Amino acid sequence: MLDKVTAKSAMKTDTTEIITSMKRFREPPVRPHAGDVAIVGAGLIGLSIAFELASRGATVRVYDAAEPAHGASWAGAGMLAPLTETIKDESLRRLCELSLRAYPAFTQAVTAASGIDAHLRLDGLIYAAFDSATRDDLLMRAERLQQRGFPVRTLDHREAIAFEPVLGKRLVGAILMEEEGHVDNRRLGRALSAACSALGVAVKAGAGHVRVKHDQRKVLGVWTDDGFFAAGVVINAAGAWAARVEGVPPDCVPPVFPMKGQMLALALPPALIRHPIWVPDAYLVPREDGRLLIGATVEDCGFDSRVTAAGIHVLLDAALKALPVLNDFAITETWAGLRPATPDLKPFIGATPLERYFLATGHFRNGILLAPVTATLIADAVEGQEDETLRLFALQRSQPEHAHV
Ligand code: GLY
């Protein structure tokens, strides 16, 4: 385990690297680009990569079977929470932390190019306990994280209520992840689409099944419902559908599968809740317009994306047990999305055995969080700069034997 000093200094080095790399968003391209790039999948991952590569001077086309940023990118709650998510794999947790630190520069660059504010808020996330066993677990967790130098604070009842008055009398204890927060992922999707257009990226919605064309050694381009488009680089960012991108050799197909998440929204007065709140079995994420998002189920049921009575029941039960004050608010929306999961729950980011064919998929619960760092890593890889980090997220790493979690 890293001690406090090591963790902090390692973080500083990585942060410096990320900040340096993120500066590219604001500066004119300084390196030769890699030619025409085709990206399969216009979710936040695909669009972030397109934005980064176009910022560096590449000519980029993005293909999606549906509308841009309307899959898991639209369905998520936009929570940016690497510590709260309890990510067991150290390399993935560190990647998530790097991406969190990159978020302010990333959203600034996207807003500058698009004129759309994605409502990034990194002013804390509360993890709340309503019984003494959960509180004791939280306190132990906070202590472990503090010992490793992470910005986590324990809150007594008074402090927690001052932070979020809605937590009420039943609260027994809480911890505050001081630097975590949220972004409005739907606004970010719109902002990224506009930013990509501003940089000349062609985003083709309704592209149908995309088929990759190659000559056994390297990619040549993609077939879509509109015909063939030559490309020197193809990037599979098709989320839960990544294993269905056709035409590639079998050893380039990522073992990605869908994991459904159902959610709902309540209409609250704006600012009644200001920070994301984790409660047992659910999380609550506020939006600037007053909506409170409540999520999310984790269901292994293939490509079934229906909202079900049982799914909504589970979420409401957890949310209302914790915060009975929510009982009387109207439900304004229910929806479901398909997270791209992998057998070891780590994403696939980087090269494949097929030359110039890259993967950026399998981000499971952390796709929105990992968008900035994925974009930087993939753009670097496309330009021939292989980052050591990518070995940990390579398609060829060993996988657990069971197909699903
Ligand atoms: N990141 C939260 C979720 O996937 O439900």
Question: What is the overall number of helices?
Answer: 10
Structurally, the number of domains stands at 2
CATH level-two architecture of the largest domain: 3-Layer(bba) Sandwich
Based on helices, strands and strand pairing, what is the structural class? alpha/beta
CATH class category of the largest domain: Alpha Beta
Mean pLDDT across the residues is: 90
The outline comes out as globular
Percent range of helical residues: 25-40%
Question: How many angstroms separate the termini?
Answer: 26 Å
Beta-strand content estimate: 15-25%
H/E element string?
HEHEHEHEHEHEEHEEEEEEEEEHEEEHH
**The named CATH superfamily of the largest domain:** FAD/NAD(P)-binding domain
Reported for the largest beta sheet, the result is: 8 strands, mixed
The CATH topology of the largest domain is given as FAD/NAD(P)-binding domain
List of distinct ligands in this structure: glycine
Radius of gyration, taken over Cα atoms and rounded to an integer in Å? 21 Å
Number of strands: 19
Give the uncertain stretches in residue-range form: 1-34
